[in-house]
Each structure stands twice: as C-alpha cells, then as structure tokens.
Write a structure and sequence with these properties.
heterodimer, A: 293 residues, ABC transporter involved in vitamin B12 uptake, BtuC, 11 helices, globular, B: 14 helices
C-alpha cells in the first residue's frame, strides 16, 4: 500500500507540471480554437531566459518574475506578429504556423545557447519528509501548490474581473463583443501572453527536476500536456488540471504495476486516455458543442 | 464545353507524364533518388489529402501508417529465413512467408496499412475535431516504442536491413534489367517505380474526388449534420476515408523502406507525421497537382536551410521562418494560389459549374 501511495505521490508531482502546460493549451484553445503546438517550446525558451538572467547575476526570484514579464511580452508579440496574420485562415494553416513556431523556437534556442546542457536552480530545495512511509519531496509539493495556486488565480481572473469577462466574451462571440467596445484582437493577444506566462512557470519548475536541460526540455512534456488537455476537455481549465494530475498518476501506475507495459509507459498511458475519450468524447470536463442546424 | 475541360486535363496529365519520364536523363544519379523521395512524399500527402482535404479530419498520425507499410514490406522481403538469419524469431502463427520480391510486397503493404487505418478509424468515429487530431498524434508518438517492443519480428531499435536481401531489386549490383533490354541504375529504377505508382494513385485520387464517394466526403467536411440528413452514412464514409488514406501512406512507407534499404523505428518519429501535415498545408488542402509542391518543400527546404548555414539551430530557424512566412503569404497553400491565378484564365474557356 505504501508503495502504491508512493507511486501516486510521485505521479501527482510530475502531473502538476503537465497540468500547468495543459492549462496554457486550454487558455489558447478557448480563446482562439487553436491547439498551440509551440506551447512547449515557448516554455522552453522562457526557461532559457531565466537561466540567462541568473547567469548574469540576478537573484533567483528577481529572475523568475522578470522571466514571467518577458514571457508575457513574448506571447503577446507572437500573437500580434505571427498568429494574427493567419487568424482568418483554416485550422490546418494556423496549426502549421504553430508547428513552424515550434521548429523556429527550438532552433533559436539551440543557436543562442549553443545546444549545451544547462542547469537551473531548484527554488524549493531538496528536502524530503515522511508521511506514513511515503516519502514526499518538498520540491514536488511546491510544484503542486504553485500549479493549484495558478489555477485558482486564473479562475478569479476569468470569473471575477471585468478583464476576464471581456476575455470570455471575445472567445464566445467576437462580433458582438466588438460591438460592446471590447478590443477583441487585443484580448486574443492577452490570452497568448497569459499562456506564455503559464508555460514559463511550467518550464522553470520542470527544468530543475531534470538535473540539466537543453532545447529539447519541453517536447516530452508537451505530449503529456496534450494528453492531459484532451483528457480533461480542451475547453475546461479545471479539466486541464485534473487531466494533468491524472496523466502523471496513470503513467506511473501503468509503468510500475503492469510488466508488459514497463517499457511501453507512453503508449499505455495514451491507450488509457483513448479509452476514456471513447466514453466521453469531449473529455472529462469538456462540454459537447451544441449546434443549431 | 465539357470536351474543352477534358482536353485540358488530358493535356496536363500528358505533360506531367512527359516531364516525369524525361527528368532522370537530365539529372544526376543522386538527384534521381531525391526525386524518388519527392514521389514517395507526394503519395503520402495525396493520401492524407483524402482524409484531411476531402473529409476534413486532421490526422497527425500518418507516419504510423507509413511505418506499417514499411515494416510489412521489409518483413515480407526477408521472410522467415531472412528474419531467422538475422537472429530474430518471428512467432509461428505470423504469416511472414519465405521472402518475396520487393515489388510484390507493395500491394500487400497497402492492404495491411488500409486495414490498420480502418481499425483506427472505427474507434476514432466517436471523436471529433481537435480530439481526433490529438488522438492520431498519440498514435504517432507511440509508434517507435511499439515497434521496439515487438522486436522478435521488427528487429527492435536496430530495425531490419534489406541491403543484402536477394529480393531487393538491383541494389547490390546497382543495375536493374527492364523489359526492352535496357538497364537502369538503382536510383533511376526507384524513381520510375515511385512515379509510376504515384501517377496511378494520383489518377485514383482524382477519380475519388469526382465520384459520388468524393462528394459524400466533402459533404461530411462542410457540414456533418447536413450530410447525414442527405443520406450520407457517416460511420462507413469516415472509416473508408481513414482506410483509403492509410492505404496511400502504406504504399509510401513500402517505397521508403526500399529506398533506404532498411527500416528502423527511428525513421518514423512524430516529426514524420507532422511533416506530412505541413506538406499538405504547403501544397494546399483539397488540391491534387499542387501537392507536389508540398512534397518538394519537405525534401528540399531542409537541405536549402542546411546549405545556407551549418551553425547549430540556424537551419531550423530558417525552416520555421520560411514555413511561417509561406503560410502567412499563402494561407491556402500553393493550390490556393494556383486557383486564384488560373481561375480567371480557365473560366474564359469554360463556365464554372462547381
């Protein structure tokens, strides 16, 4: 039992990071209807920015918040300069543009930071404590708490502020939002900025858990974040978090307890998610689109 | 009026065939293998177009169906003796044969891939839009590790080597005897084989486009509910589209195995599936001839980027920037551009009906 709980706990820890990136995906999907393939690479780039700032002598937390600001600006800039230009095109065109961004950001990071392995400080320390035979790392707990806090903050932003109302309105009905004086295209840019911030947090939290990182840091994380977003429902922020934690736990349990799948963790987890999707085609928390014909 | 249109089409096709026939005598041996690769990607993109362009289902997993085709060909070419000579032990129930000539494995690879497509298409019917796209993405992600898992027949990470196989036409002596007493180099042979198949499959895709089936698929793309209300069977047509599309990918994979003399799990990463979608977007969704441009893009752009700079990361930056720029300038791909440019010209020859 203790072993089982141990697997669940370490699954929750990695799930926290998937949840953050999934949340970023959901944010952009909700406002623009686009699955952003560059989300992981945006996060990776932010992580390198943080590394660079620390390398130039800034204290960790100063660098952390500076990175969030830079990431926000970067996200807004990407939407204004690139994504906005294809906003009227077909879904496949927009997806292709985000794939282009993925390739470009990955290359740019390899170019600027020479493709070398870097290490990022762990803000939570390496202490662990024991709860009834289950070892819990402070770092894992920290990741989980930060993820949940960000979800709560987003919920407040979307449900309790005028800005959040404008963001939701632009996503739901751009035309009539425009008539109400909402600057819809800036709301979309704001969505990209927020998503970039979430990604930056995910990147800065996951990098220390890997020991060292290079420009390929977020590619595997992105795959699990996709799985998490789909599992929870692409239009549900709560779903993204539950999905992320679930994916983390499923991955760990499948790998640990089913021998056949020991070296097939990834396909097995995807299979479980596909099975759940067959029962709930719009994810656990997603809403089926109702259309008038 | 109809006669004029048909005449233009036949003329265009004849011109296309003429270019394909003449090209090898004008280019080097090495270029011939690159042009063969373009043909292979053209086939795969044509197939993806049936699913994504006609039916409106985005697939990010067609690399998986290419892998199915490639491994079917490799396993059948080696057969049980070849696999066992390589230290593998395929299970007794698996009908791997005793080694088969490479060309004969192509239709079998196509059918196996089509079956895989249908099997995936069935559960996928429950999903829609981005959920389905990401489910296919999951298949692409899982492919390499699944191939590695069944190493008793796939050879695991090392893959299968076909270079020494007596069933690989002409690779060892680099000469292929063709009817009429002529000999071709291996790359020229591969070029002709690929483009002959590509032309045949192109005609099939064209026929599908203009048939009842093609109209049904496009009806599903434009409005699923209206299509069903008009009597289009959703489940059957979507599964069929998946299956046909996978069939094309299987043929492309089979040819890829021959051109590389080998198959490895590493040859079918997620990037391969994503590249096919990129090629389709560059060629133009729902187009046919312009899809060649997508295939050319996939083969040559990475090379051009490499030629411009060797510094780490820079080729990727160039590739990504060109791709983004292209999508901003030509959101409907090369096909969309051609339609815009040629539309006014051809409409003078015959009135638009569609």
């Amino acid at each position: 039992m203790a072993d089982f709980l141990q697997q669940v706990v370490s699954g929750l820890a990695s799930g926290g990071v998937y949840a953050l990136l999934a949340l970023a995906l959901v944010l952009i999907y909700r406002s623009t209807g686009v699955v952003n393939f560059a989300q992981g690479e945006m996060a990776m780039f932010s992580t390198f920015v943080c590394w660079e700032l620390i390398d130039r002598g800034l204290p960790y937390w100063v660098a952390f918040f500076a990175t969030l600001a830079i990431s926000f600006a970067g996200g807004v800039l990407i939407e204004r300069l690139v994504v906005h230009a294809v906003s009227r095109a077909a879904a496949i065109t927009v997806v292709t543009v985000t794939i282009g961004l993925l390739i470009m950001l990955n290359g740019a990071a390899a170019w600027i930071w020479k493709g070398e392995q870097r290490t990022l400080e762990n803000p939570f320390g390496t202490r662990t404590f024991d709860v009834g035979g289950v070892v819990v790392a402070v770092q894992d707990l920290g990741i989980l708490v930060v993820s949940l806090a960000l979800v709560a903050a987003l919920w407040v932003l979307f449900q309790r502020t005028r800005l959040g109302l404008a963001l939701r309105a632009s996503a739901l009905n751009p035309e009539s939002s425009r008539l109400h004086g909402i600057r819809v295209s800036w709301m979309l840019a704001l969505g990209w900025g927020l998503a970039a911030v979430l990604g930056a947090v995910a990147g800065m939290l996951v990098a220390p858990t890997q020991g060292s990182f290079d420009q390929n840091l977020m590619l595997p994380v992105l795959i699990f974040a996709f799985a998490a977003a789909v599992l929870g429902g692409l239009d549900s922020p709560l779903g993204a978090v539950v999905g992320g934690l679930a994916v983390g736990v499923i991955l760990n349990l499948v790998g640990a307890y089913i021998d056949f799948f020991a070296d097939l963790r990834l396909p097995a987890a995807l299979l479980v998610i596909l099975a759940i999707l067959l029962l709930r085609p719009h994810g656990l928390f997603g809403r089926a689109a109702v259309r008038r014909v | 009026m109809l006669a004029a249109r048909t005449a233009i089409r036949v003329l265009g096709l004849a011109l296309f065939v003429a270019v394909v026939v003449v090209v090898p005598s004008r280019i080097s041996e090495f270029r011939a293998s690159e042009f063969a690769l373009i043909g292979i990607f053209f086939i795969a993109i044509l197939g993806l177009n049936i699913l994504t362009g006609y039916t409106g289902v985005i697939s990010l997993g067609h690399g998986a169906f290419m892998a199915v085709g490639a491994y079917t060909t490799a396993i059948l070419m080696l057969g049980r003796p070849g696999l066992e000579a390589g230290g593998l032990s395929p299970p007794d129930w698996l009908p791997v044969g005793d080694g088969m000539k490479d060309v004969y494995t192509i239709p079998i690879a196509a059918l196996v891939a089509a079956l895989a497509g249908a099997l995936f298409g069935l559960p996928a019917l429950r999903l829609s839009g981005p959920y389905l796209a990401l489910a296919t993405f999951g298949v692409a992600v899982a492919t390499p590790s699944v191939i590695r898992k069944f190493d008793s027949v796939t050879g695991g990470s090392g893959g299968l080597n076909l270079f020494d196989s007596p069933n690989l036409t002409g690779a060892i002596f680099n000469a292929v005897h063709v009817p009429g007493g002529r000999t071709l180099t291996f790359n020229d042979w591969l070029y002709y084989l690929t483009w002959t198949i590509a032309l045949a499959l192109f005609v099939v895709a064209w026929l599908i486009h203009h048939s009842r089936l093609g109209r049904a698929l496009r009806a599903i793309r434009d409005d699923e509910i209206a299509a069903v209300a008009s009597g289009v069977g959703l489940a059957w047509h979507k599964t069929l589209a998946f299956s046909l599309s996978a069939l094309y990918a299987g043929v492309a994979g089979s040819l890829l195995a021959m051109s590389a003399f080998s198959v490895q799990p590493g040859a079918f990463p997620v990037d391969r599936s994503i590249a096919l979608l990129v090629g389709l977007a560059v060629g133009g969704l729902g187009s046919l001839v312009p899809l060649v441009a997508g295939a050319v893009f996939l083969v040559f752009l990475p090379q051009w980027a490499q030629d411009l700079s060797q510094a780490p990361g820079v080729p990727a930056v160039i590739y990504g920037a060109v791709l983004i720029g292209l999508m901003i300038v030509l959101p409907t791909g090369v096909g969309g551009l051609l339609r815009r440019v040629l539309g006014p010209l051809t409409s003078r020859l015959y009135p638009r009906s569609q």
